[in-house]
Amino acid sequence: MPFMSVKFNLQKRVKLAQGLWMFYWLSVIVGISIFSLGIFFKIELRKRSEVMDNSESHLVPNLLILVGMLACGLNAFGGKMCHDALDPIKFSKMKPMLKPFMLLSCGFSMLLLLVALLCFLMQFSIYLTLAEGLKNTIRFYKDTDTPGRCFMKRTLDITQIEFRCCGNNNFRDWFEVQWISNRYLDMSNDVVKDRVLSNVEGKYLMDSVPFSCCNPGSPRPCIQHHLTNNSAHYDYDHRTEELNIWTRGCREAVFSYYSSIMTSIGVLIIITIILESMDVAGLKYLSTSLETMTDPENPECESEGWLLEKGFKETFADVLTKLKTLGRANQVQEGGDAPEVSPP
Question: pTM for the full model?
Answer without folding.
Answer: 0.81
